[in-house]
């Protein structure tokens, strides 16, 4: 089964620093089995530890991002893994320090929706549809959809999405702020790569710290989040040496930046 899961979760790592994870079970609309979820969790753990990987793109093959959990695996997933953080895809994505870009290529349903919400940036194809079927099938959410969605699009819209189980099309998702951009299907992956390349141009250490402070602060009341920013800024600057400040000044002045060498065809 492990070998099958590896075929159903494809990984490409490029010398540019970009890694692409593709859910590759298109005939089943990329419905997620327990082995696939375990493999996904392992991959996010592994890629987070790889110094050469700077940005991760997550997408699906075929006409769906993911139709959610394969119903044949429902018992094993919902009862067996809900408390197992090592096998919990969403938990490992939340722990991942690298920026994660979701390229939503089609249907994005329930567990697939929850995985998408865990990405840092979302780009959607015009064919994308977001659907929460927890209420329809009697599944209790455990990967954060009931809490994250309302914080992204507001509680009234979130209640409409989750209590009706009706689809949200890509254009509406963009209007509501659920996704960053909507593009034609043929442009989806290139757009995600372009965003990744823009991230790669920046200072890596600060990129990771900036992601962390945005995500960690978002979970706190506003006043506590501001306090957390101050604390981390103090720690950051307290740890800087004179040569670090000099390098920063040189970079701002444009004296230390060198043209990047081409490292990949990506």
Automatic annotation (TrEMBL):
Top-level taxon: Eukaryota
UniProt cross-references to SUPFAM superfamilies, sorted A to Z: ClpP/crotonase
PANTHER family per the UniProt record, alphabetical: ENOYL-COA HYDRATASE, IP11341P-RELATED
Family to which this protein belongs: Belongs to the enoyl-CoA hydratase/isomerase family.
Full protein name: Enoyl-CoA hydratase
Species of provenance: Sphagnum troendelagicum
